[in-house]
Amino acid sequence: MRLSTLLAALVLATASLSQALAQADNMRADKAMSELMGALQLQHIKLWSAGRLGNWPLATYELNQIEAGLGRVAQPAGRADQAAAAVQALRSAVDAKDATVFTKAYGDLTNACNACHRAEGYGFITLQVPTSSPFTDQLFVDQLAEARWLARSICGNCHVVFDKPNDRPESRIPAPSFPDLASRPSFSSDDLRQLLTSGHRYLGPNQSMPNPRLASHQVEAIVALFETQRAERAR
């Protein structure tokens, strides 16, 4: 009698332990899915911000993150195909740098996400095209693209900017090229930053270097270009 009671208690304990372990596994799975969905939502915002401002390299990066995240979500074939088609349409728009097509494809991806939420019983989670960005510490414009334009239009009058055969300044003033400046160990980013914010009154032949009058974000763009050139030459 005691043996049967002991066996019954053991069976109950085993069942209780199995149930507890299953609940713990479900809780871990739910937490992992919640974290994944949260990350996808943030990437969804960043993708919109990047595409809206034409920062196509960043848009490509965020789209890659979204595609990888969606690949970790178990979906029926039909919904998975819909999401994959939306991602591919976005990729084509990003590759073509087409803002109009990007906007439509982004809406299609957003609709596909909401359709999946409704089908899984989470229709109360509804995504939309972002109206603002919470990432106030991230610059979403293509800083290097802006820097290249500034360098060519302002600095390129006197300096060789990219050291290419057809890259010749209009002026014959013997100003150092950007690649040459980037290769000088003694010339730091802080030196360049100070130079760009100075009046340039005593620089250049006959102390005639013009003041570019750059805004702070434009100065930082030129510094980013300088640091990129330095890193490329160091490879």
Would you give an account of this structure?
The chain has helices spanning about 1-50, 55-70, 75-95, 100-120, 145-155, 180, 190-195, 215-235. It starts with a helix and ends with a helix. The chain is built from eight helices and no strands. The mean pLDDT is about 80. It is an all-alpha fold and about 240 residues long. Helix 1 runs antiparallel to helix 4 (about 100-120), helix 2 (about 55-70) runs antiparallel to helix 3 (about 75-95) and helix 5 crosses helix 8.
What layout of secondary structure does this protein have?
Elements: H1 2-52, H2 56-71, H3 77-96, H4 99-119, H5 143-153, H6 178-182, H7 189-196, H8 216-234
Largest sheet entry: none
The Cα radius of gyration reads 28 Å
Q: What is the 3D shape?
A: elongated
**Low-confidence sequence ranges:** none
Beta-strand content estimate: under 5%
What is the ordering of alpha helices and beta strands?
Answer: HHHHHHHH
How far is the N terminus from the C terminus? 80 Å
Q: From the structure provided, what is the oligomeric state, counting identical versus distinct chains? A: single chain
